[in-house]
Amino acid sequence: MTQLTVRRVDESWVAKAKAVAAERGVSMNTVLLDALAKGLGVDDSQRKNGLEKFAADSPEDFGEDWEETMEIFNTVDPELWK
Q1: Residue 77 backbone zone (phi > 0: left; psi -120 to 50: alpha; other: beta)
Q2: How many of the other CB atoms lie within 10 Å of CB of 31?
Q3: C-alpha distances in angstroms, 76 versus 7, 14, 32, 66, 79?
Q4: What is the structure's pLDDT at 58?
Q5: Which pLDDT tens digit goes with each residue over 9-19?
Q6: Number of helical (H) and strand (E) elements in the chain, helices listed first
Q7: What is the CA radius of gyration of the chain?
Q8: What does the alpha-carbon distance between residue 6 and residue 53 come to, in Å, rounded to a whole number?
Q9: DSSP state string for 42-61
Q10: Are 56 and 62 in contact (CB under 8 A)?
């Protein structure tokens, strides 16, 4: 992936990107990449890793399945500790 710098961006665009990022709970980088892809007519589905559904801030975000989801982390494989 390439990094780039964009100069002379209107402050109102930055404010809008920050607001959208906060509303969606994502980074400004994500918002801007999505906007670029959409504006350029590029299919950015390859950019997604499929983990978005697991992103959460608290156990409540996972709903009823939190304990079940986390159970795997309560198990230690003795073979890994030999």
Answers
A1: beta
A2: 19
A3: 51, 46, 41, 19, 9
A4: 65
A5: 999 999 999 99
A6: 4, 0
A7: 19
A8: 30
A9: ---GGG--S-GGG--SSHHH
A10: yes
Lowest mean pLDDT among 1-5, 16-20, 25-29, 67-71: 67-71
Give me the residue label for tokens 């494989």. Answer: 77
What gap in Å lies between CA 73 and CA 47, rounded to an integer? 28
22-61 pLDDT, tens digit each: 999 889 999 999 999 899 998 876 666 667 666 666 666 6
Q: For residue 40, what are its two tokens? A: 């350029």
Amino acid letter, 65: D
Nearest to 53 by CA among 61, 44, 45: 61
In the chain, domain spans: 11-48+56-81
To the nearest 10 degrees (0 to 180), the angle between helices 11-24 and 28-40 is 110
